[in-house]
């Protein structure tokens, strides 16, 4: 019982630190205009770093961009970020991403990711789900930017591709399994 109380307290301290010292603007939430600017800028940065992402972006039906995710923890951890769904060059909705975790982990990290939605069914899944957990819907392929050069339009067969970018900080491991994405009003 004391262990559970200690872990709960550690998690609360982490959340307080993350929202107070690390990302004061995230605690109150960014405006729609701020999310739009950040998402478009992050996508352009990703395109500059990965020609494969740029090619994939031309073929995608929509792109869900989370420009700034903050992840941190010590045994108990979490992550949070806000993003925009871009479709035909316009913002089609706003989303947040959140994840809680428990295990051998320590550190703090900031990064972004983009989900390239390649089919209408993938877009429908995102839009009709009232909060969906990655790993329970359409299949997602996480693309290693270093290996992305070997991808061609004939080898692309998944409904959703994920690219990570802008990693800063020190924390072991990036993954999407167990991440919940929810549409929000802005």
3D structure, described in words:
With 186 residues, this protein is α+β, with helices and mostly antiparallel strands. The protein has one domain. Helix content is 33%, strand content 41%. It has five helices and six strands. Strands 1, 2, 3, 4, 5 and 6 form a six-stranded mixed sheet that branches. Strand 1 and strand 2 form a beta hairpin. The longest helix has 21 residues. The protein starts with a helix and ends with a strand. The relative contact order is 0.18. About 12% of the residues have low confidence.
**Structural class by sheet pairing and helices:** alpha+beta
Alpha-carbon distance between the two ends:
40 Å
Specify the overall morphology: globular
Q: Low-confidence parts, pLDDT < 50 over ≥5 residues?
A: 18-28, 146-157
Number of domains: 1
Major β-sheet annotation: 6 strands, mixed
User: Strand tally, please?
Assistant: 6
Q: What is the residue-mean pLDDT, rounded to a whole number?
A: 75
H/E element sequence: HHHHEEHEEEE
Key words describing this protein structure:
186 residues; single chain; six-stranded mixed sheet; alpha+beta; 41% strand; 6 strands
Blueprint of the fold:
Layout: H1 2-22, H2 24-28, H3 32-49, H4 51-59, E1 62-87, E2 90-117, H5 120-128, E3 132-133, E4 140-143, E5 160-171, E6 180-184
Parallel strand pairs: 4-5
Antiparallel strand pairs: 1-2, 2-5, 2-6, 3-6
Q: Could you write a compact summary of the structure shown?
A:
Helix content is 33%, strand content 41%. With 186 residues, it is of the alpha+beta class. It has one domain.
């Amino acid at each position: 019982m004391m262990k559970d109380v200690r872990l709960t307290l550690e998690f609360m301290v982490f959340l307080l630190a993350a929202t107070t010292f690390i990302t004061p603007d995230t605690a109150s939430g960014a405006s729609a205009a701020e999310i739009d600017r950040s998402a478009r800028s992050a996508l352009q940065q990703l395109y500059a770093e990965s020609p494969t992402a740029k090619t994939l972006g031309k073929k995608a039906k929509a792109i869900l961009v989370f420009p700034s995710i903050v992840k941190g923890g010590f045994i108990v951890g979490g992550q949070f970020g806000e993003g925009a769904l871009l479709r035909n060059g316009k913002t089609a909705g706003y989303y947040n991403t959140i994840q809680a975790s428990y295990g051998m982990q320590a550190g703090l990290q900031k990064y972004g990711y983009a989900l390239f939605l390649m089919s209408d069914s993938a877009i429908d899944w995102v839009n009709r789900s009232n909060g969906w957990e990655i790993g329970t819907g359409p299949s997602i392929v996480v693309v290693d930017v270093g290996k992305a050069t070997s991808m061609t339009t004939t080898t692309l067969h998944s409904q959703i591709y994920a690219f990570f970018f802008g990693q800063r900080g020190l924390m072991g491991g990036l993954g999407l399994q167990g991440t919940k994405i929810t549409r929000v009003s802005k």
